[in-house]
Every structure is written in structure tokens, then in C-alpha cells.
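Lab notebook, entry 237. We have the chain sequence and a SMILES string for 1-deoxy-D-xylulose-5-phosphate, and the next step in the workflow is to get a structural model of the bound complex before anyone spends time on docking refinements. Request logged below.

Task: model protein plus 1-deoxy-D-xylulose-5-phosphate, output C-alpha cells.
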Amino acid sequence: MTKLSVNINKLATLRNARGHNRPDILQAARDIERFGAEGITVHPRPDERHIRYQDVRDLKHIVTTELNVEGNPTPDFVALCREVRPEQVTLVPDAPDAITSNAGWEVVMHQQFLREVVAELKSFGARVSIFLDPDVNLVEAAAATGTDRIELYTEAYAVQYLANREAAVAPYRATAARAGQMGLGVNAGHDLDLDNLAWLHQQLPELAEVSIGHALVCDALYLGLENTVQLYLRQLK
Ligand SMILES: CC(=O)[C@@H](O)[C@H](O)COP(=O)(O)O
Ligand SMILES: NCC(=O)COP(=O)(O)O
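Result returned:
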């Protein structure tokens, strides 16, 4: 079974546009869970342009499924995770000025750093996942960090899906299979949507969780949040 974790960054972007509390992202998280999602994902960035550190603290009291906190493990980010103790922490190597996540970890170059961060996060009970490009050659180095899971960075899949879905999924299938053989769990995320999600799910038997935000929130403008969450869940059946 593949779980759907809904990324609510873009709801916070909308809220921050006016400086008040509309939409109320805590209520949205409650509702998204009530509509069937199995997790809530947030990706606080240093400039707090969408999810703020205080939101993460508040969400810990609200979320009853799984809270997945994504980010670059700066000292401030690790301190936030130590305080909040989310069920899962996903490490993403995004630069402070990045518009959105744009690469997986160079796990060989950063192996020692990641090993230390993973150990620290696991010491207070978090499951740890490492954002990774789809490349079988990276899996061994990822496993050596002690991470529990990898999150496959799916932008390249999403871009290629409409032209050639078989070619698009091939490196993901190989990387997920290798991760499974090495005892790592497999998550996926970035630019997944109602067109490309079902094929990824069918092709990756190892897929434990997808985190989806941007497309899901865009779809909800037309289809409504409850209906949209259920449509995404249906792709994972
Ligand atoms: C790791 C990942 O791919 C997502 O967290 C993505 O970065 C969403 O963040 P934004 O909503 O800021 O684009
Ligand atoms: N980890 C990926 C995520 O949380 C959402 O990415 P996107 O659907 O907003 O591209």
C-alpha cells in the first residue's frame, strides 16, 4: 500500500499573501486527514515564505496520521525537528534561494555529514528519508548514511511522462528495486499529479509513500479539496 502525504506548503503561500489566517492551515490539515490522506508534509524554508517554523510546531499537535518535515538540515532545521519530533524527516539539499527543490543529494560527497545528521534525527525517534535522484549507483552510498528511506525526486519523471512513460519510469524502477534489496524504504515526490501518479505507483512495487502538494492544491481550486484528495487516493489503489 502506498500512502498519500499531502504537502500543504502552497496553502501557507496563499495565507501569507494577506498576513491573516485565511486559509487556516491547521484546519486544512485536519480536513485533509478527514478526507483520507495518510500524512501531512511541510517543507519550511529559511525565509519562511510559506510554511513557518511555528506552523510546524502547531501542526505537531494537530496531525494524527504522520507529520513529514522536509528540508535542508541546517542547525536551525535540526533543532526544529528535535523540538517537534515529527514521525518522518526528509532531508533535501535545497539552497536557501531555490524556488523549489531542484536536485537530490550528492550522497557520496556528503556521506559523512549525512551520516551524522541521520544519526541525530534517529536518536529522537524520527524515521529519516533522503531525497535522491533516480540513479542506482547512489543507493549504496545512501544506505551507508543509515537512512531508513530514500525519496525519489520525480521531476524528471513528470517531465518525460507524457512523451514516453516507459522511458520515464525506467530509472525509478531500477533505483527503487535496488533500494528494496538494500532494505531501504522508498518514497517519491515532486511534480506528481493526477496524470502521472498511477503509472509510477503501478511500476514501483516498493513505493511506500508519495508526498504531493503543488498539483494537488491547483486541482483543488477546480475540484474542491475533499474530492481532490480522494481522486489522488484512487490513483494509489
Ligand atoms: C522535496 C520536494 O520536492 C518538495 O518539498 C518540494 O520542494 C515542495 O516545496 P515547494 O512547495 O516549496 O515547491
Ligand atoms: N516531497 C515532495 C513534496 O512534498 C511535494 O512536491 P510537489 O507536489 O509540491 O511538487
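Notes for the group: Residues 7, 41, 70, 151, 189-192, 211-215 surround LD2JLWAY (ligand 2) (CB under 6 Å). Worth checking against the assay data. The longest helix spans residues 165-181.
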